[in-house]
Design brief:
disordered N terminus, alpha+beta, 201 residues, 6-stranded mixed beta sheet, 5 helices, 2 domains
Length: 201
């Protein structure tokens, strides 16, 4: 059942394609479709980079009726620029990008990281996570649910989390940035990827 859950999640993200857009403020967003992306932008320069699941680049253009549209493919996106922009966004806004995978050394690793973590951080449908705290295993269905269960804990030292793609994390509280996280003050929880497996997995 667990493997089937991971397969379904993977199919919903990788199989259906989708796009990741970087806006003119440097923020990253996953869109499951071209229509969803176009509905979220107002002018062509608002999206400074649009990436398809295969790493190909696009931009916003105006069609014959002066409506926003996607350009034809522009070839591979500059991998070095994309990686630095992603790491910068994570550093500047930990509350918005809490899932911290290992450093994306390669192009395919970066693309998987972008599409999977951005999807999970804002997933609309329920997908099964695994949370282990003090020997007790539970199965939240969203990252917000994981956050809520951890929120009342004074210590996260013995907590471990596994996402629906099979990546394991250690939750850590870090200082938030109120100006870039909806006015939130105090600490926020990020999830640092670890190599060890969650017991009971």
């Amino acid at each position: 059942m667990e493997n089937r859950t991971q397969q379904l999640v993977a199919e919903s993200v990788a199989g259906a394609g989708g796009f990741v857009a970087v806006d003119d403020a440097g923020e990253f967003t996953f869109y499951p479709s071209e229509a969803a992306l176009l509905a979220d932008f107002e002018y062509t320069a608002e999206a400074i980079c649009i990436v398809g699941r295969d790493g190909g680049g696009f931009r916003l253009v105006l069609d014959a009726e002066r409506k926003l549209a996607m350009s034809t493919g522009l070839g591979p996106v500059d991998f070095s620029w994309l990686r630095q922009a992603w790491l910068r966004a994570q550093r500047d806004n930990p509350a918005h990008y809490p899932l911290r995978r290992f450093y994306p050394a390669g192009r395919d690793t970066l693309l998987a990281c972008l599409f999977e973590t951005l999807y999970l951080e804002n997933a609309l449908e329920a997908v099964e996570w695994q949370l282990l705290m003090n020997g007790t295993e539970t199965h939240p269905v969203t990252l917000r649910d994981v956050d809520a269960r951890l929120g009342a804990r004074d210590s996260l030292e013995h907590a471990r989390v596994r996402d629906p793609f099979g990546h394991h994390y250690r939750p850590v509280r870090v200082p938030g940035h109120p100006a870039r996280s909806g006015g939130r003050h105090g600490n926020v929880t990020i999830y640092a990827e670890i190599a060890e497996a969650v017991r009971g997995a």
